[in-house]
Amino acid sequence: MKALVFTIIFFMTFCLSGCLYLFSPSISNSLSSDDLFYKYSGKKMKLLRPMNLWQWGNSYSLNEIEDKASDIDFPSEHEFYCHLPVGTPIILTDCYCSKDYSFFFTTKAIINVNGKIILSNINKEIEFEYKWGENGYLYRAPWEEKNFPKMRYIKKCQ
User: Fold this and answer.
1) Domain range list for the chain
2) Which residue in 1, 17, 108, 143 has a CA-CA distance of 20 to 30 Å to 27?
3) How many Cβ atoms from other residues are within 10 Å of residue 140's Cβ?
4) Overall pTM surpassing 0.85 (yes/no)
């Protein structure tokens, strides 16, 4: 009898967690009006650290120079696009938090920023995505001064 009750509970938990995943595997909410992002939104800034730009399909991602391609969460068909030197102009357009769920709990919460890079040497604007933080922590962004900590806790996107 105990085995039957345990089996039923296990089966219901398994089914419910699967339903949650099927209906809502990842939920995104905008942080664009938040004070952290608002002061950067729509303003033309310059990169204060050199970065790499990676491409897969029509999507681009901005990543630190010291990040190895194997350390970055890329689809397998990614490729290096170009190196962006200090002073490259960028404009940030959106900031959002994406949360992945499993068994009704947040398993991963990522803060991403969308923006545009202005490549004046080829007269082209490229839209990019940058992983600014995760699980309640922000990394020092390439447009932030060195006096910002490398990682800081915020009470958003946990």
Assistant:
1) 26-153
2) 143
3) 19
4) no
Q: How far apart are CA 110 and CA 90, in angstroms?
A: 21
Distance CA 27, CA 30 (A): 10
CA dist list (Å): 95 to 2, 3, 17, 135? 50, 48, 28, 15
Pairing of strands 151-153, 137-139: antiparallel
Which secondary structure element, helix H or strand E, spans residue 19, and what is its range? helix 2-23
Rounded to the nearest 5°, which phi and psi values hold at 11?
-65, -45
Q: Which residues contact 94 (CB under 8 A, 6 or more apart)?
A: 30, 32, 113, 114, 115
Q: Which helix (H) or strand (E) holds 28?
A: strand 26-30
Give the tens place of pLDDT for each residue, 93-136: 988 787 776 666 656 778 888 999 988 777 888 999 998 888 88
* Distance set, CA 33 to CA 36, 40, 73, 124, 142 (Å): 8, 11, 27, 28, 21
pLDDT tens digits along 11-56: 666 555 555 445 555 666 666 666 677 778 888 899 999 999 988 8
